[in-house]
Amino acid sequence: MQQQAAATDTQNFAALVHIAGIFTFFVGPLVVYLARPERDDVLALNAKEALNFQLTLALAWVFTIISILLFFGLLLFPFLAFASVALPVWAAVVTARGEAFRYPFIIRWIR
Questions:
Q1: Angle between helices 42-69 and 27-35 (to 10 degrees)
Q2: Is 59 helix (H, G, I), strand (E, B) or coil?
Q3: Burial class (CB in 10 A: 0-12, 13-18, 19+), 17
Q4: Alpha-carbon distance 65 to 36, whole Å?
Q5: Rounded CA gap, 17 and 48, in Å?
Q6: Three-class SS of residue 38?
Q7: Domain range annotation of the chain
Q8: Per-residue pLDDT tens over the stretch 36-95
Q9: What is the pTM of this model?
Q10: What is the C-alpha separation between 69 and 48, in angstroms, rounded?
Q11: Are residues 62 and 80 in contact, defined by beta-carbon separation less than 8 angstroms?
């Protein structure tokens, strides 16, 4: 029973790491990833995935802002704003159920 509670706590914290990215950008997932002594546990793997997503998202925001200045980035802005919130929420829901989640179409900066 205690192992099941510990697994549930880990899943909930892993889901929180994905949500933290919405508010802290890459800082929250980075802190959790660096704080994990074992890089292959569930929490570290989810923090790494969230960190990769947030870094790719930051690059996409830079590209979008530059392209807005060139007047064609206005089409990218709503899509990127939606993806910035919707994908971490989706990842948190899947992670909270105990399933592994991989963000689609991101650069795997940290392997």
A1: 150
A2: helix
A3: buried
A4: 34
A5: 10
A6: coil
A7: 2-96
A8: 888 778 999 999 999 999 999 999 999 988 888 877 777 888 999 999 999 999 999 999
A9: 0.86
A10: 32
A11: no
> Lowest-pLDDT range, 9-13, 18-22, 35-39?
35-39
* Beta carbons of 19 and 92 less than 8 angstroms apart: yes
**Between the CA of residue 62 and those of 39, 43, 44, 72, 73, what are the distances in Å?**
29, 28, 27, 14, 11
Which tokens sit at 98? Answer: 């105990």
Instruction: Tell me the one-letter amino acid at 15.
Output: A
Helices (H), the chain: 2-24, 27-35, 42-69, 76-96
pLDDT of residue 6: 66
- Tokens read off for 93: 């829901």
